[in-house]
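To close the chapter, one final illustration. This time we ask the reader to focus less on the individual chains and more on the assembly as a whole: which components sit near each other, and how the overall shape emerges from the parts.
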Amino acid sequence: MPASPAQLEVRGIGKLFGGLSALEEVSFTAPAGRLLGLIGPNGAGKSTLFNIIAGAFRPSRGAVLLDGRDVTPLGSAGRARMGIGRTFQLATLFHELSAMQNVLQAVLCRAPRRTLAGLLQSEAYRREQQACEARARQVLETLDIDAYWNQRAGGLPLGVRKLLTVAVALATEPRLLLLDEPAAGLSEEEGRRLMARIDATLRGRCTVIVVEHHLKLIQRFCEQVIVLEFGRVIYDGPPAGLKGNTRVVDAYLGHD
Amino acid sequence: MNAARLVVALVLALLPLLTPTYAQHVAIVVLINAAYTVGVYFMLRMGYLTLGHAGYIALGAYTAALVSTRLGWSPWIGIALAPLVAGAAGWGLGSLTMRLRGIYFSLSVFAFGEIVNATFRAVPALGGPAGVAGLPRPAFAGIALESHLAYYYLVLAAALACGTFLYRLQGTRFGFALLTLRTADEERLAQSIGIDTPRYKAWAFAACCAAAGLMGAVHAHYLRFVGPSIFTFLYSTDLVVFAMVGGLGSFAGPLIGAAVLTALGEQLFSVGYYKSLVYAVILIAIILALPGGLLSLPQRLRRAR
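The assembled structure is written out below.
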């Protein structure tokens, strides 16, 4: 994968839904190549923040910078082309397409469209197509799910679907990858295996931000953890410091 | 497969030479409807049900009619302009309504079709309720395509152009990307991998409507007449029925559906207005008995044996 990891900077992000404030003033930096965990109680604003970084929502204020470049004006598709990849919480896939075709969709987005050449069925176009298919197969192999290549994505077991969502995101050759609860719905053991696979595949290739509820997974795999509560960052540091931090402990366990 | 293609090509090219005029007329109508249905199928494949396709056909047909009668230009100019007019309208409405899906999208296209029809009916300069009559037949190599047989070959060429265009478009990266727009969730995923979905939808719609416009122009010159009573909502729904009865499993489905039901429909002329009722009954029967459409019939028979 030729792309190099990108640094993400989130600067003073605020988001209002109607009059309701989902994010107050969120700022942090994810250095290039880092595996960063984003945690917080339900309703803390994790998903909103994800959607803002990915371009699905527009922030009410603040900016998102990728390698110092302001990408805030870009929508989802534009940011994907800038190198921001993401997965969705519910293992969203193109359900009617095969596993291979799912990944191929993502690979093809990197290829020039050249619809006219396609209509004329030129030889060069066909060769490009074959190269993309080979690349899609390779991505499936990277995550060790190539055995399912020909099966309808909607019919695959949840664990495989989760990996396939990562494969689809990976096939866009992201420089920053956002993983939204990759282990949700899996057993602890499955979740651990999945995270290990993701870690082994992605380390050094791209910056990763992962939202996860399993604290154990975060502590085991992430080098930096950000804790959100009520739309604010209450902790930004190594996972080792989580336990000793009273605000984090309060946020998670509550206090009288 | 190639042998089958050759047979089909020979039949399409030679059969009209051996058949009476009435059969040639039926063949012409079959080809026209098949070309329209392929466009409807193209949208259905993306997950979008168009209930206003006749509106785009009408735009093409009226373009041809007005260019050749009001302006007195060569019919070929009208035939060339028609796909541009219908395609541009498709792109425009597509850009506006492609955020909608499901029944909301279908209703918006339905409304557009009705507006087109109502406009042509209301504006005398566009023919008014009486429509536009006296369209000339285009001439090819100095010979006006007056006979059914001669016109058949023009219709065949136009149908092949529409069919080949949309079939090949499906096979392009653009056409493949159109399979990512079925649901709101899938569309979000499509955007997250860099597909600019509103633009893709607008262009896909433009392509279907351009094909409809081209055939609409050829259709108009065949009838030598266009009017608001031809390209109605019922025509739009007939096309959807053709596609679904044929089967949505492959490109051949809409062709089979259009051919079978159009040929049958021509025999139902005596029931006139109730033709759509007959189609509806056939559609329900097919949905209940043969969900894959006529396309899946051989497979079904093989399994039954």
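The two ends of chain A are 51 Å apart (CA to CA). The CA atoms of residues 84 and 176 of chain A lie 5 Å apart. With these observations in hand, you are ready for the problems at the end of the chapter.
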